Amino acid sequence: MRSLHIERHRADRIGWLRAAVLGANDGLVSVASLVVGVAAGGAEPATVLLAGMAGLAAGAMSMAAGEYVSVRSQADTEHADLERERRELIEDPAHELDELTEIYVSRGLDEPLARQVAERFTAVDALGAHARDELGITDTLRARPAQAALASALAFALGALLPVLAAVLAPTARAGIVIVVTTLAALLLLGATAAWAGGAAPLRGALRVTFWGAIAMALTAGVGRLFDIVA
User: Fold this and answer.
1) 58-76: per-residue pLDDT in tens?
2) Contact criterion met (CB below 8 Å) for 141 and 15
3) CA nearest 229: which of 43, 35, 36?
4) Is 118 helix (H, G, I), strand (E, B) or coil?
5) Which residues of the chain are modeled with pLDDT < 70?
6) Burial level of 210, CB count in 10 A (0-12/13-18/19+)?
7) Which of 96, 127, 145, 191 has a CA between 20 and 30 Å from the CA of residue 202?
8) How would you write 155-222 as a 3-class SS string?
């Protein structure tokens, strides 16, 4: 007797992984850039900490709200398409069966077999068949607004916490350097982990994320120097 082979695919992670990686990366880069810029402007440690915590709170809420609204719009579109398919299945089932048959023919089945498959799927779950094969809506890739919002907010807060802690624990004279080094190291790890989880090359993912993080911090440090509050 053959044992059941269960395959696990990376597509199952797309919903939460995208939101979590985006949130953590944004938290690291934006808050690190913020505190580096403030520190470069000669602000006191308490001011740097205040800026970092304010950026953490504001950014986490902004990420949650933005992600929820965006994915909610996708979910609303999916719902509207499914309702339309549901009506069409009631009003003109013969046309919908022909439509499903044509889809399977276009994917390589001959017409009699495609018709047989379409009839079978229609008998079992007509709406599910049209959702999957006509609209491309599946349980794995279906929009989940609350999950995306929560993942983004938590990931942003965790990512932002690292540069804030670095700013608090680092010597005042070297706060900027410590924050930059800590953030770049974290970005390397985050980029590599995200790439590995998604099945891509870890080194390439790490370098890509770190490059843009370094650019962001360099720009904000330059702004901080330009508006040095001590000078």
Assistant:
1) 999 988 898 889 888 888 8
2) yes
3) 43
4) helix
5) 1-19, 140-141, 197-198, 227-231
6) buried
7) 145
8) HHHHHHHHHHHHHHHCCHHHHHHHHHHHHHHHHHHHHHHHHHHHCCCHHHHHHHHHHHHHHHHHHHHH
